[in-house]
Amino acid sequence: MGVRFNMIGLFVNDLQKTIAFYRDVIGIEVKQIDGPYAEFKHDGIGFAVFERAKVPEWLGVTPAYPAGLNGTFELAIDLPHFKDVDREFDRLVKAGAKPVMEPKDMPWGQRSSVVADPDGNFIEIGSFNSEE
What is this structure's pTM? Predict the structure, then answer.
C-alpha cells in the first residue's frame, strides 16, 4: 500500500483575508471554520488554511516562512482549453489576485499563467489543450 496525500494545508498570516480570497476570488466554497483553521469543499484532495500565529504552540517549535512570492510550491488549476487560461487569469486578477505571469505558451505544449494569493503562494492556471 502506497502513501496517498489527502489534504493540502497552507499556513497563512491573515486567516480571514485568506478565507475571503479563496472563497470570493478563486470560488471555492467554505466547508467549515474552526478557530485558527478553515477547510474548503474541494473534490479530490482536501484543501485547508491554518493561522500561522497558532502554529508554534501546536508544533512546539517556531517554523520559518518565505517572504514575498513563495516559489517553493504551487497550486495548479487545469482548464479545458488555452482560451480558458486567458479568461480565468483576467477574472482572477480583476477579482484581486496578484498577477505573477501573464498567460503564455510554454515550450512543453501548455498555455500557462500564474497569480498569487495574499501570502504570495503561486496559483498556476494552465491548459494542455489548444483546440476548442
Answer: 0.93
